[in-house]
Amino acid sequence: MSNLVSYLFETNALRICPDNKPFWYTSGKIGPYYINTHFLYGSEQNAVDLLSFIDAEKSDKEALPKKVFEKTLNHYSENQIYKNVIDEMISFINENIDVNEIDYISGGERRDWFFSNIVANKLGKPHITIYKDLSMVINDSNFKTEIAKSDVKGAKVLHIADLITEASSYIRAWIPAIKSLDSEIVWSTVVVDRMQGGKEKLENENVKSLSMINIDKSLFEKALSMNIINETQAEMLNNFYENPDETMRNFLIAHPEFLENALASDEKTAARAKLCIDSNLYNL
Questions:
Q1: Nearest Cα to 141, choosing from 123, 114, 159?
Q2: Is CB count within 10 Å lower at the N or C end of the chain?
């Protein structure tokens, strides 16, 4: 998986903050990394372009899956990073699941589709496209024929996603959608697990959760050994992994200028810093 670790950093799918400059999150909290797993599509710009394409075409839900598949298949033949990521994912699935037991592969709106439909094609499995409103379109593995929902019953489904955090999308949408077909998600495969409880929630739903990369100390050690991050960054990452709120609270106490500078910064940063202070997120 060392190639995949390299690709995470090369594409900025995983960004580590510079020394003593944690990132501001939308929640008003701060942390040492950002994850945009869909950047493994080859680059940030490639990923943004595909999301824009999806948004532009999404009004025709029936036609969209085939269009996205054709886009990703073409990109697979042209972009070496994306091709290697998909090939690694297919190898990972073959190593961890008896592929003969998989009846369908599903992917949820929108970032899952960067990976799910082309993997379905490569494994020769029909694909279930799930929208946020729980509507679905089911296609054969070549996305040439649409399959009636009534034909999907008792199926064992592998759901493929870019990222799992707390599994809220699974609980809210993906699992109920597949259940509505009288089928079940038996496995979940993600590129990145943020290790924030999602795996456990899926296992409570009888879904086997498999991840290619875990955001944990072993990843930080790997990045350090590859000279991708330095000792100071590794220390903050490890402390954040152990106790995120306490680590960031201690940082803010040690660096009072960080909040002051944020309040005087651009509009978005200032708004997040104000939210942090007004909500007393770190009990300062």
A1: 123
A2: C
Can you say how many angstroms the Cα of residue 188 is from the centroid of all Cα atoms in its chain? 12
Contact status, residue 269 vs residue 239, Cβ threshold 8 Å: no
- Matching CATH number, 61-206, of 3.40.50.2300, 3.40.605.10, 3.40.50.2020, 3.40.50.10210: 3.40.50.2020
Residue 133, judged by CB atoms within 10 A of its CB (0-12, 13-18, 19+), counts as exposed
CB atoms within 10 A of CB 187: 20
**Tell me, what's the pLDDT at 54?**
98
| 10-residue mean pLDDT series, the chain (284 residues) | 88 95 96 97 98 97 98 98 98 98 98 98 98 98 96 97 96 98 98 95 98 96 94 95 96 96 96 97 94
Q: What phi, psi does 168 have (nearest 5°)?
A: -65, -35
What's the gap between Cα 213 and its chain centre?
A: 11
Look at residues 204, 229, 200 and name the one whose alpha carbon lies nearest to residue 217.
229
With b for 16 or more beta-carbon neighbours within 10 A and e for fewer, the 34-73 pattern comes to ebbbbbbbbbeebbeebbeebeeeeeeeeebbbbbbebbb
| CATH 3.40.50.2020 placement within the chain | 61-206
pLDDT at 1: 60
Nearest to 244 by CA among 19, 38, 252, 224: 252
Numbers of helices and strands, H then E, in the chain: 13, 10
Q: Is the peptide bond before 110 cis (omega within 30 degrees of 0)?
A: yes
